[in-house]
Amino acid sequence: MPRLVIVSNRVADPRRPSAGGLAVALGDALQGRGGLWFGWSGHIIREGQPVEEALHVQQTGSVTLATVDLSQEEHDGYYLGYSNGVLWPVFHNRLDLADLDAGFVGSYRRVNQLFARQLKALLRPDDIVWVHDYHLIPLALELRTLGCAQRMGFFLHIPMPPPLLLAAIPQADWLVRALFSYNLVGFQSQGDLAHFASYAEVEAGARRLDGQRWQAYGRTLQAASFPIGIDVDDFAALTHAAEARDMYERMRQAYAGRRILLGVERLDYSKGLPQRFKAFAKLLKNHPENIRSTTLIQIVSPSREALVSYSGLRQELESLTGALNGDYGELDWVPVRYMHRNVARRRLPGLYRLARVALVTPLRDGMNLVAKEFIAAQDPADPGVLVLSRFAGAAEQLKEALLVNPYDTDGTCETIQQALHMPLTERQRRHQKLLERIRAQDVHWWRRTFLEALTATQGDDHRVALPSLA
Ligand code: GDG
User: Fold this and answer.
1) What is the chain's Cα-based Rg?
2) Tally of CB atoms within 10 A around 433
């Protein structure tokens, strides 16, 4: 079996207890067949440090972890500037937050070239290369330019925007052209695939060969939807382990007799947090029986704090929390428990299990794993209800959740009220179906189907490089 090479912006040591489900799943794949995981180390090069010292290679069993340091300038332009200041907002429909003028694309391209050079030295001719996410869209193009002919796949974890939104990025044609350097491109949903197909056909003149293959720039590309999942059994086991049970018990006593609405996410404007707080305020106003009996627990883990759009959001949430607690709080009850802090991964399932309703209401999301973790952590005899945004990729699969439009705070408020009062038999029926769905397409299914499809792609002659950035 060919060796697997995974490339992502950050590399996680899959054996660490803090590693998330995705890191563990990719680590399993590497361990199973032997492999290499390559990416940024998370470190910035010290002033005057020789560049050759910037590559770190570490062997752990059959897996090699190889990481590269970046200079401050490279990090700021590639990571903060283009990846998170242009691609992230536009791909999440927030053109208003994109900093398109700043010329960050030069750094983005240079870092992808640096990765390509460093990785090429480590590659074997029959390796299979799987590249992850928006930070590394042009990596295959740069590797092909250096003469690498290996089979290469790309998975986009975030949404693919509609063609006219994508077209607002000055380098949109180059990005789509770069995707044609891969053998296989995977998206989270059918909706994302349709957006890509439409851009490729209308803007780039690609010819559709069949349901999954397109021809453009002298190349054939296969593209399909591979919705990412979680390790359901592993998450269920975590729910029954000591830390999660302890969390559950302590919170159950602290909130005795109160119904918990729960939100868990990274601080990000794509997650619809202000809209959620406003919907909750409406719930207390329009359905006052929830006063004193319902509490919103919102965990927000710190993220991308160097970006202005993120610090502004933090202030907005603090102000909304203050207003809600000031308007509705009692001496012995606060409506919103807002925590801007990370909760230990092993404790998280206890919180999920305690919640009567999970609020997963992003304005846009590639998939959303919190929705799936919440389902896996429930007690099937007395499960909580999932309120899910129709704009999360997960909505394509999780049809038995209560789907909402998070921009419509009145509608979301009424759906939360419906969730809080859903009869036990309906909760059980919906949960059972949702559990079946996340089991059928779990993270192992995702990894297997992607790698099988990549292995089966018909190869073009990848020694011929595509034209570069105009
Ligand atoms: C991107 C795409 C796509 C959150 N808070 C804490 C914590 N978390 C964990 C959750 C979950 C993960 O972080 C979040 O994953 P999501 O999928 O919900 O969202 P993104 O981080 O935006 O992920 C997304 C995903 O990639 C995978 O393809 O689904 O659409 O945006 O696992 O549990 N974990 C801990 N403490 C926290 O406070 N330990």
Assistant:
1) 23
2) 14
Q: Where are the domains of the chain?
A: 4-229+445-456, 232-440
- 240 as an active site residue: the answer is no
Q: Which of 55, 25, 22 is nearest to 41 (CA)?
A: 55
Report strand pairing: 55-60 vs 63-70.
antiparallel
Tens digit of each residue's pLDDT (9 = 90 or more) over 210-244: 999 999 999 999 999 999 999 999 999 999 999 99
**265 ligand 1 Cβ < 6 A:** yes
* CATH number 1.20.120.80 given to 4-229+445-456: no
Ligand 1 pocket check for 84: Cβ under 6 Å: no
Residue 254 CB: number of other CB atoms within 10 A? 11
Bridge partners, residue 57, by sequence: 66
Whether 56 is catalytic is no
Q: Which of 129-138, 139-148, 277-286, 457-466 comes out lowest in average pLDDT?
A: 457-466
**Catalytic residue (choose from 132, 135, 157, 195):** 157
pTM to 2 decimal places: 0.96
Asked if domains 4-229+445-456 and 232-440 share a fold, the reply is: yes
8 Å CB contact between 236 and 200: no
Query: Two tokens at 37?
Result: 């995981």
Q: Superfamily assignment of 232-440 in CATH? A: Glycogen Phosphorylase B; (3.40.50.2000)
The position carrying tokens 């060919």 is 2
Q: What pairs with residue 66 in β-bridges?
A: 38, 57
Pocket lining: 366 vs ligand 1, CB cutoff 6 Å: yes
